[in-house]
Amino acid sequence: MPHVVTDNCQRCRFTECVVTCPTACFHGDADMLYIDSVACIDCAACVTACPVRAIYELTDLPEDKAHWGPINAERAMILPIVDHKQEPLSTANARRTELGY
Ligand code: F3S
Q: Residue 6: is it exposed, middle or buried by C-beta count within 10 angstroms (0-12/13-18/19+)?
């Protein structure tokens, strides 16, 4: 099953994940990234790269984050690929602290 980016990415967008991906399956808007569920080969390399633990394997999603599966699939189809590290959002470090990481 593919991996999924969840709400912890919002106000962070660290993009550490994209450089680990062998299939360039991350797509992004101004708020966060999303994984293309077709392109993802389930290597899980991105999971530990994310400093705020935003990424889950689809079947491991907590119940309150289950809606992020379809959101990733839908958003990734219409947004541009992000395959290079970018500057995190200006709110990233505050959000990381807020999340306890
Ligand atoms: Fe978001 Fe974590 Fe990647 S904050 S951009 S999923 S490294």
A: buried
Domain boundaries, the chain: 3-92
Ligand 1, atom 7, lies closest to the CA of 50
Q: Ligand 1: which residue has its CA nearest to atom 2?
A: 50
What tokens appear for 35 in the block? 């994984």
Inform me whether the pLDDT recorded for 50 exceeds 90. Answer: yes
Q: In this structure, which topology does domain 3-92 adopt according to CATH?
A: Alpha-Beta Plaits (3.30.70)
AA identity, residue 90: S
> Where residue 1 falls among pLDDT bands split at 50, 70, 90?
confident
17, 84, 90, best to mutate for ligand 1 pocket (most atoms within 8 Å of CB): 17
| The pLDDT of residue 83 is above 90 | yes
